[in-house]
Target: ATP phosphoribosyltransferase
Amino acid sequence: MRIAVPNKGRLHDPTLALLDRAGIGVEDGADRQLYADTVDPALTVLYARAADIPEYVADGAADAGITGHDQLRESGVDCVEERLDLNYGSCRLVLAAPEDGDVTAPADLDGATVATEFPTITRAYFADTTATPEIVEVTGATELTPHVEMADAIVDITSTGTTLRVNRLQVVDEVLSSSVRLFAHEDVHDDPKVQQVETALRSVLDAHGKRYVMLNAPADRLDDVKAVLPGLGGPTVLDVDEPGTVAVHAVVPERDVFEAISELKAVGASGILVTEIERLVD
Model:
């Protein structure tokens, strides 16, 4: 199985780190290398431009891919399916116009010019409005086009809005919310290896923000401990050699650990151990 991943840019390192945490880390992934093996002999990584990855999957050069939802939508391919939101690389595609201009709503752009690196998404967006602007495709520095009279507005990606503010542009509307997704060709929908990769990646996401808590507690205070540590479906309770004592294990949201430790000690818990969880498979 071949899985296409970004070869550079802001999505490259987080994607490789996620694969590594999921147990399918890349081996010998040197710079400028097109392919790389993983620890799984049946899985190969294919490096490609983030914008090209949907086409690689659609054409069969790769069975699955990891890239932004915005890139998948812009490609227009219809033979791939999203499998999993990987919850990083979050950004927004927005319609923006000069702060001191007259554009305050999409309808104000009827007959105007809109510059963008995402013409497919932009045309689809305006098809749902009353405006019919001319869409001009540019390949960079989109935010400058209104100031050199190339466009009346732009559709561009923003994460924090800083670049827009620096260029005296204001957000008129949100066009698309995006994050990085795992997707695959529709022909491999039931492929066991694709499902295995999806499960591995999901296990990392499900473990995020959770901690594994282990402790000893008096058996007669077990109900009090359970009230503090409901866990996933309830804590696991184990007998130990010491009479009148049980071991309790539970998965706890990280944000609750600080207060939980104090409450556990108050009901007689001891030997409390808190560890990170790398992967969590339901």
Summary: The chain has a mean pLDDT of 94.
